[in-house]
Amino acid sequence: MQRWTNGEAYDPYMGRWSHAVAAQFLPWLAVPKHATWVDVGSGTGVVIRALLDAQEPTRVMGIDRSAAYLAFAQHHITDPRVAWVVGEAEHLPVADASWDVVVAGLLVNFVPHPDQAVREWRRVVRSQGTVAAYVWDYVDGMPLNQVFWAAVAQLQPDPQVEEERHQFDQWQPSVLTHLWQEAGLVDIQTTSIHLPMVFADFADFWTPFLGGQGTAPEYYQALPETMRIHLRETLHAALPLRADGSLHLAARAWAIQGRVA
Predict the structure, then answer these.
(1) Crossing angle, helix 159-166 and helix 215-222, to 10 degrees?
(2) Whose CA is closest to 134, among 243, 251, 234?
């Protein structure tokens, strides 16, 4: 079980990527301003910050199973249009057909029953409203994880490592499209979102792994100290650092949206 309990640790690990993908995802949706939004799996508030900056929403609800993440988000986002609710993606505490948009960023692959979750998101959206989400392309578009698990496999090959490395490989546009179709959504569209990212040096890349938030950091924290040292050295040697010490990576996310008829 991953420990999604510390917003201060999560933001340095995934925050820079999450902010970048949200900034491209929201304009692609082309939702008119002054809509009402539900952000499922709102976490530390990345999508909601972007919404408030760009979309001029009338109301926003952030729903997350982690009370700690909600507390972090609420501390940093005090806009009165936003309500924060502890809840599960498969059982939203809102009425039928009562919101314009439901979005879920970097969530659907973590939900135990994603088919049930997407049907639930459709339930709460009004006619002509939007249900949308995005996930990382774990096959060829999330180098932050790929280089980590490759280094782990080099040091300690075992089935558990391979399972961790490939657990989300199936989350491609075809899988997302099938979920949206099965939920009864129409006018379904998918796109890819490309994100260049520059790290000042190896420490800038590595330090966020020490916070224990997410699959790779949690795995690292559970290793014996000698293994942690070897893993860090192996990863450092494998990364394509430039002459000035910087590291240039590029991520990709898959995004989907559909309309309620």
Answers:
(1) 160
(2) 251
Tokens of 246: 């910087």
Domain count, the chain: 1
What tokens appear for 161 in the block? 């490592």
To which residue do tokens 């496999």 refer?
A: 153
Helix (H, G, I), strand (E, B) or coil at 92: coil
Burial of 67 (0-12, 13-18, 19+ CB in 10 A): exposed
> What is the token pair recorded at 27?
């304009």
- For 77-103, what is each residue's pLDDT tens digit? 999 999 999 999 999 999 999 999 999
Q: What is the pLDDT of residues 139-184, one digit of tens each?
A: 988 888 888 988 998 888 777 777 777 788 999 999 999 999 999 9
What is the distance between the alpha carbons of residues 9 and 29, in angstroms, rounded to a whole number?
29
Question: Distance between CA 252 and CA 143 in Å, rounded?
Answer: 9
From the list 115, 107, 16, 128, the residue with the least C-alpha distance to 65 is 107
Token look-up 């505490």 returns 93
The CATH code of the domain that includes 166 is 3.40.50.150
* Integer angstrom CA distances of residue 224 from 15, 84, 162, 221, 236: 27, 38, 19, 8, 18
Residues 197/247, Cβ–Cβ less than 8 Å: no
Range of the domain at 220: 7-259
Instruction: Report if residue 2 sits inside a domain.
Output: no
Give one DSSP letter per residue of 151-187, joined into a string.
HHHHHS--HHHHHHHHTTTT-SHHHHHHHHHHTT-EE
pTM score = 0.89
Q: How many helices (H) and strands (E) would you count in the chain? A: 11, 7
In a domain, 130, yes or no: yes
H-helix or E-strand containing 10?
Answer: helix 7-10
